[in-house]
Amino acid sequence: MNIDFNWLTKLFTYSSIQVKFLATFIATLTLIFFRRAIIKIIIDRIKDAKLRYQWQKGVSYITFITGFLVIGQIWFDGIQSIATYLGLLSAGIAISLRDPLVNLVGWLYIIWRNPLEVGDRVQLGDQAGDVIDINLFNFTLMEIGNWVDADQNTGRLIHIPNGHVFTQTLANYGKGFKYIWNEISMQITFESDWKKAKKMLEKIATLHSTHLTDLAVKQFKEASKKFMIKTHDQLEPSVYISAEDSGIKLTIRYLCEPFMRRPTSKEIWEDVLNKFENEINIEFAYPTVRRYNDKIESKLAIKKMNENSSI
Fold it and tell me: Which of the two residues, 19 and 255, has the higher pLDDT score?
């Protein structure tokens, strides 16, 4: 038995608006079914969150491009007609849709140059957070900071237009060199044994960050191949000292992963408080007002007092 397919040819060559709408409707349903089937069969079975997200985005982009080409072929006689139509509308689109076009170009730049990707912790202008989604016109951050200390999430989602990557300063916490420097400062009184305190802090900092030193050296070498970067800092943890109005300031400087700033600070502070608690000659300093009698408390006065007592 012979099957006549002439009706199908006539359907897509017939130029009535009704047929074109019907063909567009069928094509749209087919693409939606295709996308949902892929997500159901393949993507939902992927356990890794990042890989699942990449697959889902890839299928969405492929579906969108395919739909654009198929529906364009239905409504226009050929590629030449499409080019003519787009050429006539390009000036109006450039004016009326300036911001969406800039955002679309920003998306292309993000995909091509890869200044940020899902999972990165970034700061763009005054906004900072973890990138959780990137689409054609904006990317989404899980906000950090603001009223929450030490770079922890606030729970708010921030949608930033892609075009802002051209107009605002972008800082990526983990692109290139995968670690950040963190500092913890504290003050002890002038009468405290600062040398002993410094050694104790060095041991605590080494305990919590020395395991990252070898990894950081490798990461730094890899980053220096891509970027013109150099550092005068040693990658091992260190303690810096300065004299302040209220006492001697000791600052622990150590490497940590961008997402571990607050947990490492918590652990270091707990060790510091436990160690200093049992030290009689080490006390924390705080802003105070005191009267100083030079005739009694100066070094010269104390020296004379000792000499007199020895006689």
Answer: 255
Helix axes of 194-209 and 261-277: crossing angle, nearest 10 degrees: 140
Write the Ramachandran bin of 151: left for phi over 0, alpha for psi from -120 to 50, otherwise beta: left
Instruction: Return mean pLDDT, the chain.
Output: 79
- Residue 57 CB burial class (10 angstroms; 0-12, 13-18, ≥19): middle
Per-residue pLDDT tens over the stretch 257-277: 888 888 899 999 999 999 998
Can you read off the two tokens belonging to residue 27?
């094509």
Which residues, in sequence order, are CB contacts of 246 under 8 Å at separation 6+?
Answer: 187, 285, 286, 287, 288
Q: How far is CA 264 from CA 86, 142, 150, 187, 271, in A?
A: 56, 21, 10, 19, 11
User: Do strands 180-188 and 248-256 pair parallel, antiparallel, or not at all (unpaired)?
Assistant: antiparallel
More confident residue, 138 or 212: 138
Phi, psi of 216 (to 5 degrees): -65, -40
The one-character DSSP state at 146 is T
The lowest-confidence range among 42-56, 71-85, 176-190 is 71-85
The whole-number pLDDT of residue 54 equals 67
Query: What pLDDT does 68 receive?
Result: 73
Higher pLDDT residue, 209 or 59? Answer: 209
Distance separating alpha carbons of residues 37 and 43, to the nearest angstrom: 9
Q: Is there a contact between 169 and 125 (Cβ–Cβ < 8 Å)? A: yes
Nearest to 177 by CA among 127, 129, 235: 235
Distance CA 263, CA 267 (A): 6
Joined tokens for residue 270: 């707990």
The burial class, CB within 10 Å (0-12 / 13-18 / 19+), for 9 is exposed
Neighbours of 87 (CB within 10 A): 9
